[in-house]
Design goal:
- The chain is an alpha+beta fold.
- It contains 7 helices and 12 strands.
- The strands form 2 sheets. A 10-stranded antiparallel sheet has the order 1-5-6-7-4-9-12-11-10-8.
- A hairpin with a 2-residue loop joins β10 and β11.
- It is globular and about 55 Å long.
- It starts with a helix and ends with a strand.
Length: about 290
């Protein structure tokens, strides 16, 4: 079915009540690679319930933790084959520190549908409120649907982040695990692209690739640890564009520039000639 932007834009999806526990938070952090040094006090704040804190990027998995089927790209005016879809951008803004356990309601709407010619970009926004209707976080994401453009929609404007004309203030190398995609999929994203070699080849990849949102969380943690003393309460937001794939087991190289209360970030894969991974990334601080 061709995309119908008039039907899609502004469409509100069903409300989703959900809950999470300390164990869910611990699993998410472990799936990002937390606890590599299991006696380090800062790592234990991610992996041990005594002083547990929540990385704001947990917002990207909290709603779908109990999802056990591959996701479907099926919305009003939109039906897209999952094999054609890659994550485009992701942003999370937290309105207060995320509790280590709780209940909430997610409300999602289609914000925009852009026509990039050979592809369509579908932009969604989700707002999450706790049981007392207090706002917890706002999440905005876009997906890139290959072969679904050409429907006559608007192209959209560039949101490129300009980096300072100087060397980065900090450079961090972060290893990923060979089994990281298999761990991360337990947080609710069962897309076979990240586990099934045959599906990955059909989608145009030599091997299963790491979830973009896993990379997003790994980088957010690395920046928080390196520049914010591993204090997740100091993170107000994190946004990024997915510029390329990550193969499980690769090392990520993250370059960071201080810009007032913002940290400007790019991440590459040095094992593949510094191939871009995340671009236009900004971590907001408080």
């Amino acid at each position: 079915m061709p995309i119908d932007p008039d039907l899609a834009i502004g469409a509100e999806l069903d409300e989703v009540p959900f809950a999470w526990t300390q164990s869910d938070v611990l699993l998410y952090h472990l799936a990002l690679g937390a606890g590599g040094n299991p006696t380090d006090a800062k790592e234990l704040r991610y992996t041990y319930e005594r002083d547990l804190q929540v990385l704001p990027t947990f917002a990207t998995v909290a709603v779908n933790l109990r999802t056990y089927e591959p996701p479907a790209v099926s919305f009003p005016g939109i039906e897209v084959d999952l094999a054609k879809v890659v994550h485009g951008t992701q942003a999370v803004t937290v309105h207060q520190p995320i509790p280590v356990e709780g209940k909430a309601v997610a409300r999602t709407r289609i914000v925009d549908v852009l026509d990039k010619g050979k592809a369509a970009v579908i932009v969604k926004e989700t707002t999450v409120h706790d049981s007392s209707d207090s706002p917890l976080w706002t999440e905005r994401s876009s997906i890139f649907a290959r072969g679904e453009g050409g429907f006559g929609g608007k192209r959209g404007e560039s949101d490129k982040v300009e980096l300072p004309d100087r060397e980065p203030d900090v450079v961090i190398d972060t290893p990923t695990l060979p089994q990281q995609a298999l761990l991360y999929r337990l947080c609710g994203d069962r897309n076979p692209l990240h586990a099934d070699p045959e599906f990955a080849r059909a989608a145009g990849f030599d091997v299963p690739i790491l979830h973009g949102l896993c990379t997003y969380g790994v980088v957010a943690k690395a920046v928080t640890d390196a520049l914010l003393d591993a204090d997740t309460a100091r993170v107000s937001s994190f946004s990024a564009r997915f510029a390329g794939i990550v193969l499980p087991g690769e090392t990520l190289r993250t370059r960071i520039w201080r810009d007032g209360t913002r940290l400007l970030v790019t991440t590459t894969a040095p094992d593949r000639d510094d191939a871009p991974v995340l671009s236009d990334a900004v971590l907001g601080t408080v």
